[in-house]
Known about the structure:
With 452 residues, the chain is α+β, with helices and mostly antiparallel strands. It has helices at 21-47, 52-74, 76-86, 94-106, 116-127, 171-184, 186-189, 198-207, 209-213, 215-228, 258-264, 267-288, 325-335, 339-348, 360-367, 383-394, 399-406, 414-430, 436-443, and strands at 135-138, 144-145, 149-156, 161-167, 235-236, 240-244, 247-251, 256-257, 290-292, 300-302, 308-310, 316-318, 379-380, 433-434. It has two domains: 1-213, no CATH class; 325-450, no CATH class.
Amino acid sequence: MTDFRDRSDDRDDDPGIPRRTAARTAKLASLPLGIAGRAVGGWGRRLTGQNAKDVNAALSAKAAEQLFEVLGTLKGGAMKFGQALSVFEAAVPDEMAAPYRDALTRLQSAAPPMPARQTHRMLAEQLGRSWRQRFADFDDAPTASASIGQVHRGVWHDGREVAIKVQYPGADEALRSDLRQLQRFSRLFQALVPGTDVKPLLAELAARMDEELDYRHEADNQRTFARAFDGDEQFLIPKVVASAPKVLITEWVSATPLGKIIAGGDTETRNVVGRQLAEFHYSSPARAGLLHSDPHPGNFMIVDDGRLAVIDFGAVAELPNGIPRHLGEMTRLALEGRSAELMDLLRTNGFIRPGNDLQAEDVLAYLAPFTEPLATETFHFTRKWMQRQAMRVGDSRGQDFRIGRSLNLPPEYLMIHRVTAGSTGILCQLGAEIPARAIVERWQPGFADTAI
């Protein structure tokens, strides 16, 4: 670790996050222009006789590299969007997935750091000019950089190792600018993740940005989770040490990032971690009254004792009564093929608009495949399974596409739906085989007692 002296070679004008709106807009605009330009060039190369598969692979690789460079460098809303997309890469067809998988996965934890001088300035602003006295040691080099802040390692004055998350100056301005611009390009980004509705994802990120920008809100969420899971043999939630609007200090966790398990973990580890992820997702609303709503691998780690460590509680859904009961009832009805009862429940809870002439059997045919993981004692989540689901609902020529577009997702369920889809995406990245049915029966209200 370093001492607290400012580095003389740090520049005051070197920003931690690019803030000029015009410059950020130009960079984001380069994404669709670049992709379109490469598509035209690839068409020309195919006309000259080059192998179409090789040309498409080269185009995908270049598009992915540009995606990472632009979204990762800009941080802010651009990078947050990239992180949200990254959990859905399992849905991308194998022939074009490799370059996007690499680029999007890198977005889960990578971004250029801000200079030490700027970090010190933010700490002084948030913790007071004597902030150094609160630490026995502080490492100027960040251990991780993310969408709106970066994390440093240090030692608190009482000897505890701590993680210090410092928000980038101008993160609020950049977040708003990026999300407005990205919403304009939502149709183009849709092609990167078939079967995932990008527009509402961006709308949700925009609606929740004020919560994520205030680290005091995140600290309150993390304290609630830490209390609910305190002493649990399966999970570790770091305790909050101190917080301010733009600085959050928590206990340090030494663990293996989930991304390493996805990249090279053995089968047993993948299955254990997959079960823990599912258990955490379904049990949190019942235990904490909250749902962790930022499911990407960068927020999960494996401790040496086998526990799943969970971090980053800036985005949560408040569910004081747990997951709504009728979601469990709908799942059970779809699983058992009870189309008429399912249709009635969907209408009653606003999932089908009044006057819509959808047929019960068609709606069941659309929803039933999503319940496949609950039809057997264990289920093997794979990329191929997720790709089938994505292609089924994303094929504009098919009936399932029409049914999906005709159903209504009430706003209060959007977060639950996205988190469940994101968690499923991680399970497919892991290739985990888990007892999903038993987990849902235990934690999802309405599922077990709706059975025939």
